[in-house]
Specification:
292 residues, alpha+beta, Arc Repressor Mutant, subunit A, Beta-Lactamase, 2 domains, six-stranded antiparallel beta sheet, three-stranded mixed beta sheet, 10 helices, 44% helix
C-alpha cells in the first residue's frame, strides 16, 4: 500500500471543521481516528509506529534542527523531521504535533478548494500560533487519551509526583503531562512557571535614573484548571520573600507548604509544590498551586 495522507483520509470520512469553536472536539476525534485506524486502543503507551505503518508514513527522520523541534517537510509524502538531540519523550510529543499538522494541511487544502469553487459554506483557514496551539493539544489527546488518563489522574490526585508517574506511564514529557493534568483536573489547581525578569516599568525607571534595574522572580506563563477559583494570575507579576517559590529559586530544591499569595487585590491561601526547572536555557521555578 502506498502512502495514505491521514488528514485527507479523516476529512473524507468526517468532513472539514466549519466552526473553530469546535476545534477541541475535532482534534480529539482525529486523535481517536489515528489510534483506531492503526488497531490501537487507549491503553498507554500509544505506539506511534503503528500509525506510521497503518498509513505508510515514513518513520520520521532525526535531524540536527535549530530552534525547531520538528518540521513537516512534505505533507504529500509524509516526510517529517524531528530534532535529533531532544529527549525521547519530547520527540514523541513532537511527532504527535506533526501528525496534527497533517490534519491542518489537509483542512487548509480543502478550504482553498472551497474558495476556488465558490462554495457557500466557508471553511476556516488554520495558521500561525492558533494552529500550533491546537497541534499541541491534539498531540496531547493522541498520546494521553482522556478515557485512560482521567481515571488514573483521579486515583492518584493532582501533584508533581503524579505528573512524574503518568509521564512514565504514557512516555510523555513531565511538562506535557502536567499540562494535560490541568486540562482534565476536576479540582482547583494552577501550574505557574516563574523566571527572573525585569519589568518594563523597572526598565523605564532605570532609564530615567541611570540606576541598573534588578531582576525579580516573575510569572512567565501559567495554566489553570477549569475549576481554578484563585482568581486571575497576571503575567509578569513578581514575588518576593517570604515565599517557598523564591526559596526554591535560591536554594534549587523543592518545597511543599501552605502560604498566602497575592496576585491581585485579594490574597489567596494555597497549598504549594515547587521545584527548580531549567526551561528554554533559563533557570526557572515551577509551582503547582492548590486552593482546595
Amino acid at each position: 500500500m502506498a502512502y495514505q495522507h491521514p488528514g485527507q483520509t479523516f476529512i473524507e470520512q468526517y468532513g472539514p471543521l466549519l466552526d473553530k469553536r469546535q476545534a477541541h472536539r475535532y482534534v480529539t476525534q482525529y486523535a481517536d481516528f489515528l489510534r483506531q485506524a492503526s488497531g490501537m486502543g487507549e491503553t498507554p503507551p500509544i505506539l506511534l509506529d503503528h500509525i506510521y505503518r497503518s498509513f505508510e508514513i515514513p518513520t520520521p527522520y532525526r535531524a540536527p534542527l535549530i530552534d525547531q523541534q520538528g518540521i513537516l517537510v512534505d505533507a504529500d509524502a509524509g516526510i517529517i523531521l524531528i530534532k535529533d538531540d531532544d529527549p525521547r519523550a519530547r520527540q514523541r510529543f513532537t511527532e504527535g504535533h506533526e501528525l496534527m499538522e497533517l490534519l491542518f494541511d489537509a483542512h487548509n487544502e480543502r478550504a482553498a478548494q472551497a474558495t476556488n469553487t465558490s462554495q457557500k459554506t466557508a471553511i476556516p483557514i488554520w495558521q500561525g500560533p492558533l494552529k500550533e496551539q491546537w497541534c499541541d493539544r491534539g498531540s496531547a489527546a493522541l498520546l494521553m487519551p482522556q478515557s485512560s488518563f482521567v481515571p488514573q489522574l483521579m486515583e492518584l490526585d493532582v501533584s508533581l509526583e503524579t505528573a512524574r508517574i503518568l509521564s512514565k506511564t504514557y512516555c510523555t514529557s513531565f511538562m506535557a503531562t502536567l499540562l494535560q493534568m490541568m486540562e482534565h483536573s476536576a479540582g482547583s489547581h494552577a501550574t505557574v512557571v516563574w523566571r527572573w525578569a525585569i519589568s518594563r516599568k523597572d526598565q523605564q525607571e532605570s532609564d530615567r535614573t541611570g540606576i541598573p534595574p534588578k531582576a525579580k522572580l516573575r510569572v512567565w506563563w501559567r495554566k489553570c484548571s477549569k475549576r481554578w477559583d484563585g482568581g486571575f494570575i497576571p503575567k509578569n507579576k513578581s514575588i518576593s520573600r517570604p515565599s517557598s517559590i523564591i526559596d526554591t529559586a535560591f536554594e534549587q530544591r523543592s518545597h511543599q507548604c501552605t502560604e498566602t499569595l497575592l496576585f491581585e487585590k485579594t490574597p489567596i491561601q494555597c497549598r504549594i509544590e515547587t521545584m527548580s526547572l531549567p526551561l528554554a536555557d533559563q533557570s526557572c521555578v515551577l509551582s503547582l498551586l492548590h486552593t482546595e
